[in-house]
Amino acid sequence: MIDENIRQQFLDWVDSVLDRPIPPQVVAFNFNLYDAPATWDVQLIGAPSFDPANPDWACDELFDSGQPFFELPHLRNDESWEEGLARAIDLVREYLRTGRNAGRLRSAKGVGVGFVDGELEIVSGVHRT
Question: Which pTM was predicted?
Answer without folding.
Answer: 0.93
